[in-house]
Write a structure and sequence with these properties.
eight-stranded parallel barrel, 8 strands, 17% strand
């Protein structure tokens, strides 16, 4: 695993909530960046093609301004269109090989592996650059998601030499446990965007990674 990739996928990994108002979306994301978010994943399942393109491009520019790693959810073609740093693939979003053929060798490809270390090992074999496990806690975004045990992170840390992202119901109160178990990054939606102060929430998450 390159040290550069370690730096690109670490810390607070913010995943956008579905937001039709691009101005509001950008305002919220800017606050998260000011609070220390290091990675952004653009995810908007409800948007049409035109809105996705506009929002994805606007977020590309904002990520460039703050030097934040920019990942697009699901859609390698959209990631290519807006020159994102990479794409994140879920279980039904196509293969790593297909995404690699679209994006080329220099882009980042992440893969959701849920609660299955074997999926992660296969993703690595196919050329994934990072893997994500979860859900670790009750998630408002995906309340019916498969439950992952925290010990999975420790097992993965031993077997995998690439960044590991934890996702699912993560808050400032439980995030440290996941970092200690082996997570390089914490993927957060609700606890960030639903917070009374997004910037403060992002700062609190970021502080978890700077503990002695």
């Amino acid at each position: 695993m390159s040290s550069n990739l370690k730096k690109q996928i670490q810390g607070l990994y913010a995943i956008t909530a579905e937001e039709s108002d691009t101005f509001v979306l950008l305002r919220k994301v800017r606050l998260a960046f000011q609070g220390g978010a290091r990675v952004l994943q653009y995810r908007n399942k409800a948007a049409d093609v035109d809105l996705k393109l506009r929002q994805a491009q606007a977020l590309r520019d904002l990520c460039s301004e703050f030097n934040v790693t920019y990942i697009v959810n699901d859609d390698a073609l959209l990631a290519l269109q807006v020159n994102a740093d990479g794409v994140h693939l879920g279980g039904e979003d196509g293969s790593v090989a297909l995404a690699r053929s679209v994006l080329g060798e220099t882009k980042i490809i992440g893969v959701s592996c849920y609660n299955d270390i074997l999926l992660a090992l296969e993703a690595v074999r196919q050329g994934a650059d990072y893997v994500a496990f979860g859900t670790f806690f009750l998630s408002n975004t995906k309340p019916g998601a498969k439950k992952a045990e925290i010990k999975l992170l420790s097992e993965a840390r031993v077997q995998l030499d690439l960044p590991i992202v934890a996702i699912g119901g993560i808050t400032q109160n439980n995030g440290a446990t996941l970092i200690d178990a082996g997570a390089n990054a914490l993927a957060v939606i609700s606890a960030l965007w639903d917070a009374p102060n997004i910037q403060t929430s992002a700062q609190e998450f970021s502080t978890l990674f700077s503990r002695n």
